[in-house]
Amino acid sequence: MGCCGCSDEISSKVEPTTPENQGTPTRHSEQVFVTDRSCTDILALIVLIALAVGYGFLVSNALKKGDIYRVVNGYDNCANVCGRVTPSETDPQFRCKGADKTNERYLLTTVGSSGVKDRTCVSNCTDQVIFLNRCVPKDLTDTTTSLIKKLGLENFYKVGSYIFSKSRLQEVSSDLTVAWRELIYLLLIALAISLGILIAFRYMVQWVVYIVLIGAILACIGGSAYLWYAWYGEKKAVGQHLVPEEDSSEQAYFIYAIILSTVTVITLLIVLVMRKRIALVMQLFREAGKAVYAMPALLLQPIYTYVLIGFTVCAWAYCMLWIESAGNIYMNRKQHIHFRKDTLLIVGRWYNLFFFFVTCEFLLGCQHVVVACAVARWFFTRDKKRLSLAVTRGFGYLVRYHLGTVAFGALVIGIVRLIRAIISFVQKRLKRYDNDLVRGILCCCQCCLWCFECALKFLTRNAYIETAIYGCNFCTGGRKAFHALSSNILRVAAINSVGDFVLFLGKVLVVTLTIVTGIYLMQKKEGLHHPWVPIALAGVFAFLVAHCFISIYEMVIDTIFICFCEDCEKNDGISRPYFMSCGLMEFVENSKKALNYLDHQPTASHS
Fold this sequence. Notes:
The chain is mainly α and about 600 residues long. It is built from 18 helices and 8 strands. Strands 4-3-6-5 form a 4-stranded mixed β-sheet, with no helix packed on it. Mean pLDDT is about 80; it is low at about 1-25 and about 605.
């Protein structure tokens, strides 16, 4: 099986007779969706496999030198893990290591007057808060307070002390036991609302988009009018000496009014300029609804993906604990036993983070390719009633041909995210130094890399769509995607502004209605200590459910748009009939000619 990408030129030929296009006009159409493929970006897949092997080696090294309970439970001055039996060392220098601390479960850390920190395992924390198996004083000493502030953990400590106290955990556990039926009800309600929103996107998207646009315009106009009125009132009050000039907000109101007025004018101009493109957005929503209705298995894709990502997060956290606990034993100048990391373990820290980024992006990329393959095949099939197992075949295309392309995109995004993480680490280290110039440069680099990462993710997702259509490699797909997007920049702007905002409002609506319903149910529930706990948990579940469904809808819309662009470029609607529906034909230049031609072709199937 070859390993090269597809050819840039796809020859025009008579469309072959298959079960999916029987009964269609025998006109010469440009065959856009490629079925005869070869594997792509095999080198990137080999690199990813090599990274996985290297990751296994680093984790095995951490397993040999580490003990996860050193981090979870903590250890005393002799490196004895609290609540555990610690193996002894043969070196007489560490003879105190190896005690049985099974009955001493908590770590107590004290700081002497000389600044020496002592660690002791204790059986209970008298008059102290238990936080992550540590005894933390309720009234923090100056040294501990300064340490927590230096690490930026004061808010985390307050929240953790509140949540992780033994009585609080028992109350929360009791609340979840009492309200488990209501949580299931709220989850089902979130599921029903999400499905209802998808139905509304298909059948009532015109009203939804109009309401969003009119609401945004009225909010801008109303806000501008209010700010100008407030500025006028403040100016009048200053002129009449009712408000001292130094206490006046006249200048602030004036600046805010100018800014919001500018935003209002820009919004109105954008709506006027892109009014026809907004109609395309609504039609894309309708087409996406048809695709999801024809292939309901698309809605299951994010469930598999996010389950795998959740497993990846747990595995990453588990491996991180092993890496952080690992080290070579040594005794410091205070005669306390510690563990020092060597170069391989320090590299393992960053390697673990990088591999986590790459794995998550790889799983998301696999979902994007499967959805794009299924939707592209649906779009470029004339008789859609004969389409079968589109999602399954999309998964087959991914596994057989395009895992290397997904690996390529995941590696590129993973490298950028790793660079951002390194810059963030350096920024935190420089907080203790007074060097505004360096901090400013790093902040600018962080901002630029974030923008670059967002653009790269957007281009990568569209490159996957081109790969799904043509079976090409990542670079060719990226070039094709950039050409298609740059040639339709106004349409892309409309989709990414109006379309994404509508989808975002859909998520907000699901979460809001679920939380409001949860408040209504939990208020009448007896035996709850903290009603906000099940309500907040229901809100998180509602967001995950809404994101699963609506993120798929977003990918379907993007795929249909790229297919629309490729169909416009390869075919003309007359000598080479379009694959798109009549609704989408209204947005091409020769739409009238194409529709007139289609009216004289009774066998054509354009729904």
